[in-house]
Design brief:
Layout: H1 2-9, H2 14-39, H3 48-69, H4 81-107, H5 117-146, E1 153-158, H6 162-173, E2 179-186, E3 195-196, E4 199-203, H7 207-213, E5 216-221, H8 228-240, E6 244-247, E7 265-266, H9 269-273, H10 282-289, E8 293-297, H11 302-311, E9 318-323, H12 326-340, E10 345-349, H13 355-365, E11 369-372, H14 379-384, H15 386-406, E12 411-415, H16 426-442, E13 449-454, E14 457-459, H17 465-474, E15 479-481, E16 487-488, E17 490-492, H18 493-506, E18 512-515, E19 521-522, H19 523-533, E20 544-546, E21 565-568, E22 574-578, H20 584-596, H21 602-612
Parallel strand pairs: 1-2, 1-5, 2-4, 5-6, 8-9, 8-11, 9-10, 11-12, 12-13, 13-18, 14-17, 15-20
Antiparallel strand pairs: 3-4, 6-7, 16-19, 18-22, 21-22
Helix pairs in contact: 2-3, 2-5, 3-4, 4-5, 10-18, 11-18, 13-15, 15-16, 15-20, 16-20, 16-21, 20-21
Length: about 625
């Protein structure tokens, strides 16, 4: 009966709340009168008029002030410290009005003892106690009886700082979420052992034991900018104990500076593969790009669009954005409009293999700097489309490089791949041939500095392994891994593009820059971790199947060929590959011949590619027979 009444009362209109508050006021006045009468032996007896005035005027003033402060609009079961402060201020303001009007009546109208002063102040104290007491008791009863914690999912928070406290309050405020925060964990010795928001702050060293002992459903990482290795370590501990991991977004993403329940999200696998932030030399890059006309090919792709976003942070002169994909270019246009209102930005829908159109564009805009990110990059697809690989990755790059020299481009930065190292695929070999051409062209002329950048797989790029796994998990599996021992290097799109831009600014011409890719990641382990992060159980909810290496695919990626070594640069994450130099005349002749074969038999094309790149050894491909 009581339980049903409380459930109904939580949704009653605000007039019921103010009725409850005024009942507290009546009780407070009554108690104040009884106390004064009982213990006020030296005070004059209260007259009927004084008792009547006490009830009437205190009730009228409190009603008006409560309405003015909106105390009746506060949902009792969600009462928090802010609500209680509002009630305290409302009570004090009402008492000050009563006190002032009492003096006015006594002094001006000469009506003695209109409302006895002792009644006013005793009533204030009792009213405050009653209002706060019944709200807290109601909230407690609701939490423990109507919405008991035993039916809630238990949570622990890593991070006992301001973000952690606000996170805890979010769950306290959103009672319908059915979560119960049990404890804070932190590494700061000054916080360990403290009590925050009625919860004990425990040392990080006890986290694994605590998760194993108690029935914890979620661990929330609330520390802002927590290094990826520590985030990975915490996640591993949680996953070992079948605990899901959530993260609090950066403060800048909080809505109107306040954290909401819906913003607390699952941790993403990309966050666990990130490394320490790169220190982008903004002074060097700014000097290199200031007031320049900059062309970016493949501008609507994963890498190209991020290069666009990063360059827009600098004081460039003009941006020429080239891509042949209509829909991605449309989205790129919207992004540019939102950020810079299309200030000096031209987005051109054109294929880099269109010689006439590209010549017209280069002649019109005469870019100072070119970032060449346009390429076909999917290994198995290029094994079946050798002609397209040559047309785009080789001929397209050669045409653009030649036009750069013809129209006086100062720098040409080519985005390459680790698959160009000891290539085992048509795609990797085509990118290595493009590398060879631009490097040899660099030493043939003095107009344009040609710079090449190599890196591995990019997290979240179109067609990369993580979005594929994520889609397979959402569809219920199975997850397909090509080989149990296959590994790959990973870096974030932002990190890769920062290094491309920095290397471009550092380059003197002719270098092939390689990036510190960290440790390689076993793809099978990556799939297992993604399954656990999704709250699924391998072998029960979803399976992993091995499909076998695809055409041209390596087990292990490399950043250097066997004959190459590196030289360190001023940037700790950027090195220069000491590669073999080719004579431009010979290279130009060989590549021109290769281009003439682009519409020929695929085996003839691949055979010539192997002549240009002797280390190109096909793997798991129909072209394996050409290796010898």
């Amino acid at each position: 009966m009581i339980k049903q009444f409380v459930q109904k009362m939580t949704i009653l209109p605000s007039w019921v709340i103010i009725l409850f508050d005024l009942c507290c006021v009546v009780l407070a006045v009554t108690l104040a009168i009884i106390i004064r009468t009982t213990f006020g032996a030296n005070l004059p007896h209260l007259s009927i008029h004084e008792i009547y005035n006490s009830y009437l005027y205190i009730l009228v003033i409190r009603t008006l002030v409560f309405i003015m402060f909106g105390t009746q609009k506060m949902v009792v079961r969600y009462t928090n410290s802010k609500n209680l402060l509002n009630i305290i201020f409302a009570c004090i303001v009402a008492t000050l009005i009563l006190y002032g009007s009492n003096i006015f009546v006594n002094k001006i109208l000469d009506l003695k003892h209109f409302v006895p002063m002792s009644i006013i102040f005793m009533e204030l104290t009792i009213t405050l106690v009653l209002l706060i007491f019944y709200r807290i008791q109601f909230k407690t009863y609701y939490l423990e009886t109507i919405n008991p914690s035993k039916f809630k999912k238990n949570i622990v928070i890593f991070g006992a700082g301001e973000s952690g406290i606000l996170t805890k309050r979010v769950f306290d405020r959103d009672q319908i979420s059915k979560y119960n925060v049990l404890s804070f964990f932190d590494e700061d010795p000054n916080k360990i052992g403290m009590t925050l928001e009625s919860l004990k702050v425990r040392p990080y060293s006890q986290l694994s034991e605590y998760l194993a002992k108690y029935n914890i459903s979620f661990l929330i990482i609330s520390i802002q900018n927590l290094p990826a290795p520590k985030k990975n370590e915490i996640t591993e501990i949680a996953l070992q104990n079948n605990v899901k991991v959530l993260v609090v977004p950066p403060v800048m993403k909080w809505i109107n500076g306040e954290l909401s329940f819906k913003q607390i999200r699952k941790i993403k696998i990309e966050e666990l593969l990130e490394r320490e932030p790169i220190n982008l030399d903004k002074t060097l890059v700014s000097k290199d790009l200031i007031s320049k006309t900059i062309m970016i090919t493949g501008a609507a792709g994963s890498i190209g669009s991020e290069i666009v976003r990063q360059i827009m942070e600098f004081d460039y002169g003009k941006l020429i954005l080239i891509d042949n994909a209509e829909t991605p270019s449309f989205f790129l246009t919207n992004q540019c409009m939102a950020r810079r209102q299309m200030r000096q930005i031209d987005i051109l829908l054109v294929d880099i293999t269109d010689k006439v159109r590209m010549d017209e564009i280069m002649k019109t805009h005469k870019p100072d700097v070119i970032y060449h990110a346009a390429a076909y990059k999917h290994v198995p697809l290029m094994e079946e489309n050798v002609n397209s690989s040559i047309k785009v990755n080789v001929e397209g790059t050669k045409n653009l490089a030649d036009l750069a020299v013809r129209y006086g481009t100062k720098k040409f930065v080519m985005v390459s791949t680790d698959k160009a190292v000891n290539p085992t695929s048509v795609m990797g070999a085509s990118k290595r041939i493009a590398e060879i051409y631009v490097q040899s062209l660099n030493f043939e002329q003095d107009t344009t500095k040609f710079i090449t950048t190599r890196f591995g797989n990019v997290l979240g790029s179109n067609g990369s392994v993580i979005p594929v796994f994520r889609e397979q998990i959402e569809n219920g599996g199975p997850i397909t891994v090509t080989h149990p021992d296959i590994t790959r290097y990973f870096m974030t799109i932002s990190e890769a593009c920062q290094l491309v831009i920095t290397a471009g600014a550092m380059g003197k011409g002719g270098e092939i820059f390689i990036f510190d890719m960290g440790e390689s990641v076993r793809i099978y382990d990556l799939a297992v971790k993604m399954i656990k992060l999704s709250g699924l159980t391998l072998g029960k909810d979803i399976t992993i199947e091995f499909s076998g290496l695809r055409q041209g695919e390596k087990l292990y990626e490399e950043l250097l060929a066997n004959q190459e070594s590196t030289k360190q640069t001023d940037h700790e994450k950027i090195m220069i590959a000491d590669v073999r130099r080719y004579t431009y005349t010979d290279v130009n002749q060989q590549i021109n011949y290769l281009i003439t074969l682009k519409d020929s038999d695929q085996f003839e094309i691949v055979k010539e590619m192997k002549n240009i790149v002797p280390e190109f050894k096909s793997q798991n491909s129909k072209f394996d027979i050409l290796n010898n």
